[in-house]
């Protein structure tokens, strides 16, 4: 039986190591997404969307497609070699749409927050 998360992502766009109440992202020092500098915003948003998709899949749906990003705050840069913990909370269900609050922490310190809207198939 396949223990993979219910998301369609595979290498090189599969960014998460699923775990507990959220997910974990490991950024290697030679990660092509960062090109040696800070991790670009699109890479963090993609990781957040994947984590939110896992949260929606946990509600009986099959992942989801990112529709909207609101209130993205990124007060601290993310650098290669860091491990980030992502936590997701389902805020609201509106038909096929799910609004999910996401937070990113590095060693317990808040790195970024956002509210994402996903369109999901299935679920309640």
Report a brief summary of the structure.
The chain is mainly beta and 124 residues long. It has one helix and six strands.
Description:
This protein is mainly β and 124 residues long. It has one domain: Roll (Thiol Ester Dehydrase, Chain A). Helix content is 14%, strand content 40%. A 6-stranded antiparallel sheet has the order 1-2-4-5-6-3, with helices on one face. Strand 4 and strand 5 form a beta hairpin. The protein is globular and about 40 Å long.
* Average pLDDT rating: 77
Q: CATH class, anyone? A: Alpha Beta
CATH homologous superfamily, by name?
Hotdog Thioesterase
CATH topology assignment: Thiol Ester Dehydrase, Chain A
In what order do the strands lie side by side in the largest sheet? Answer: 1-2-4-5-6-3
Can you tell me the CATH architecture? Roll
Q: Gap between N and C termini, in Å?
A: 25 Å
Q: What is the beta-strand fraction?
A: 35-45%
């Amino acid at each position: 039986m396949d223990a993979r998360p219910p998301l369609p992502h595979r290498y090189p766009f599969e960014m998460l190591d699923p775990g507990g109440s959220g997910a974990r992202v490991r950024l290697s020092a030679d990660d092509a997404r960062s090109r040696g500098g800070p991790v670009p915003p699109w890479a963090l948003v993609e990781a957040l969307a994947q984590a939110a998709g896992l949260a929606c899949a946990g509600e009986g749906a099959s992942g989801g497609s990112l529709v909207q990003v609101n209130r993205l705050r990124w007060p601290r840069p993310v650098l290669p070699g860091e491990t980030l913990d992502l936590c997701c909370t389902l805020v609201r269900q509106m038909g096929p749409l799910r609004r999910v609050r996401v937070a990113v922490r590095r060693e317990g310190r808040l790195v970024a927050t956002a509210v994402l809207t996903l369109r999901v198939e299935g679920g309640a």
